Amino acid sequence: xxxxxxxxxxxxxxxxxxxxxxxxxxxxxxxxxxxxxxxxxxxxxxxxxxxxxxxxxxxxxxxxxxxxxxxxxxxxxxxxxxxxxxxxxxxxxxxxxxxxxxxxxxxxxxxxxxxxxxxxxxxxxxxxxxxxxxxxxxxxxxxxxxxxxxxxxxxxxxxxxxxxxxxxxxxxxxxxxxxxxxxxxxxxxxxxxxxxxxxxxxxxxxxxxxxxxxxxxxxxxxxxxxxxxxxxxxxxxxxxxxxxxxxxxxxxxxxxxxxxxxxxxxxxxxxxxxxxxxxxxxxxxxxxxxxxxxxxxxxxxxxxxxxxxxxxxxxxxxxxxxxxxxxxxxxxxxxxxxxxxxxxxxxxxxxxxxxxxxxxxxxxxxxxxxxxxxxx
Length: 376
Hints:
Layout: E1 2-5, E2 8-11, E3 18-22, E4 25-28, E5 33-36, E6 42-44, E7 48-49, E8 52-53, E9 56-61, E10 65-70, E11 75-79, E12 97-98, E13 110-115, E14 119-127, E15 133-142, E16 157-163, E17 171-176, E18 180-185, E19 190-194, E20 209-214, E21 221-225, E22 231-234, E23 238-242, E24 246-252, E25 256-257, E26 262-263, E27 287-288, E28 296-298, E29 302-310, E30 316-325, E31 337-338, E32 342-343, E33 370-375
Parallel strand pairs: 23-30
Antiparallel strand pairs: 1-2, 3-4, 4-5, 5-6, 7-8, 9-10, 10-11, 11-12, 13-14, 14-15, 15-16, 17-18, 18-19, 19-20, 21-22, 21-24, 24-28, 25-26, 27-28, 29-30, 29-33, 31-32
């Protein structure tokens, strides 16, 4: 192994067979962990269970601490514990200690680990009775930016591994930044949580988040679909229906899939509907949403607006304009082309193609958690 020091690269003596490096730590193919001190000399990190050496399969370093995943899926920590990042009240500056989830219970069945500046993370994976797997994310240490999934005003530090409730249950990858943590789920979507003052979570906001949000999403769009969920006509901000028609709507947004390098579909969220008609009774409203929450009903000719909010993952809100035509109308105002017969499908942003469009187009589905109808 080589180390860069004093403007030159020097070989560390007596340290060979290195399989992984993280910060100033190294893991050998034999499962031993070494700390490289300021002089460039390796110092072995003692990891023992019942006086027997523990073999490491992965290490990740924070600023002043180290996480170690052993061959039996247990997590050990070593180093400074100022912020609770060790996950154990014992001193870990001379020997590694095992991470706890309570006073008398250790964190086990761990499949992956990650370390932030002063925070620590682990993914626990369980096999269920139906042979599917379920992932649970744990965090401990510094929570000053909400990176452990709790309100930092009341939970600034956490000294034992605690479940992060907002994490998806199908995690493939976990990785941590300075004061953020990121996940990739089995569908290839990227999720982020924690500090976001510079847009680190890539969700179009600059506020910190103490719940996981999908990274890289765009504005929600609402489309008119058939009973099988196939798009009949894209809204581009305006959807046309006829008086008396029951129309199914479907919300969508873009989320990048890191496995396919394409925009991925999102269909695993539940709709919740809230109907408001500006104080008008239903009989006088242009639109209504039945209690089954699957359709809108065009009650009379006019214009209404559908408000869609997705609060589980995106915290996004968008509107679509609904135009109700006469019942016997034999015309269709759904836009087909623009300019020199250029299809709308070739436009990147629908607002560039239509003056009244307020949404960007995607072909991917997400279940909104609230739909609100506002008539005028």
